[in-house]
Design a protein that fits this description.
By secondary structure, the chain is mainly α. It contains 6 helices and no strands. The protein has one domain.
């Protein structure tokens, strides 16, 4: 949770965080931060699902193979989908309570 601590302690003016695709590592950080400020799990999942469409377009524009079908196929093989995993995770996980349990304050 070092990233959450770093963002919480950042100077005023905004914080930027990123990874190569902006979906997985960045998506996890965004998911936790959005949950902390009270955004509904369903809305977080819907926002995440936009990444499949956007990354598909980026891959096409760069002449690269779309990687989206790989996680989609894996999750389908598990009988679930990315949005179901996100909603399920956020339903089970109280991010604020977890942070407090590991010594972080509100």
């Amino acid at each position: 949770m070092a990233v959450v601590r770093a963002i919480a302690r950042a100077e005023p003016g905004g914080v930027a965080f990123h990874c190569v695709g902006g979906r997985d590592r960045t998506g996890q950080i965004a998911m936790l931060l959005l949950a902390l400020i009270g955004v509904a799990a369903e809305d977080i999942a819907a926002d995440y699902m936009l990444s499949y469409e956007r990354l598909r377009a980026r891959s096409a524009a760069q002449g690269e193979q779309d990687q989206g079908p790989l996680p989609e196929a894996f999750l389908a093989g598990q009988g679930t989908s990315a949005d179901e995993v996100i909603v399920g995770t956020l339903t089970e996980l109280d991010v604020g309570a977890h942070l407090r349990a590991v010594g972080r304050s509100d």
